[in-house]
Amino acid sequence: MKHKIGFNLFPALLAFSIGLALLREFDFQSFTFRKTALGILYLIVFIFLIYLTFKKNKKQPEK
């Protein structure tokens, strides 16, 4: 059986809220973060949550 890509709702909701915070932290006029360390932390967590959202399901053992 092939691995299916799953969709996990909880990390998706967290990624949505972190993504909104990331957008608020980013300054579009100068293309920088207002607080650099906080912006980088938001970006790392956002990418990790997107990974968890679309992570492949583990293969079930054959019975």
Short description:
This protein has 63 residues and is mainly alpha-helical. It is 56% helix and 6% strand.
Unreliable runs, pLDDT <50, ≥5 residues? none
Radius of gyration: 16 Å
Beta-strand residue fraction? 5-15%
The 3D shape can be described as elongated
SSE class: mainly alpha
What's the rounded overall pLDDT mean?
87
User: Main beta sheet, described?
Assistant: 2 strands, antiparallel
Characterization of this structure:
By secondary structure, the protein is mainly alpha-helical. It is built from 2 helices and 2 strands; from the N terminus they run αββα. Strands 1-2 form a two-stranded antiparallel sheet. A hairpin with a 4-residue loop joins strand 1 and strand 2. The chain is elongated. The two termini are 13 Å apart. The model has no long low-confidence stretch (mean pLDDT 87).
